[in-house]
Amino acid sequence: MRRIDCHVHLVGDGSSGSGCWVQMVSPFHRMLSRLMLVEAGVPPRVLGRDLDASFEARLVEQVS
Q1: How far, in Å, CA of 55 to CA of 51, rounded?
Q2: How many domains does the chain have?
Q3: CA angle, 54 as apex, 51 and 58 as ends, to 5°?
Q4: Which domain range does residue 45 map to?
């Protein structure tokens, strides 16, 4: 398999103690955050509970 150089942007809510956070206070921001999760393949139900680990697991699936 050919190697490529790339980077990713991570998002989190600190649910795993990662220190990541995202502040979505307006209704528009909350809707946007859910859309972003769906597009990334992460279920919105993980918000505030397991977002960090779920996002990381999905990322590993995509690059493996």
Answers
A1: 6
A2: 1
A3: 135
A4: 1-64
Place of tokens 């680990």: 53
The encoded tokens of residue 1 equal 């398999």
Contact 42/51 with Cβ under 8 angstroms?
A: yes
State pTM to two decimals. 0.68
At 33-64, the pLDDT tens digits run: 888 888 888 888 887 788 888 888 998 998 87
Among 30, 33, 32, smallest CA distance to 12 is for: 33
Each residue of 2-25: pLDDT tens digit? Answer: 888 988 888 788 888 888 877 778
Ramachandran sector of residue 43 (left: φ over 0; alpha: ψ -120 to 50; beta: rest)? beta
CB 32 within 8 Å of CB 22: no
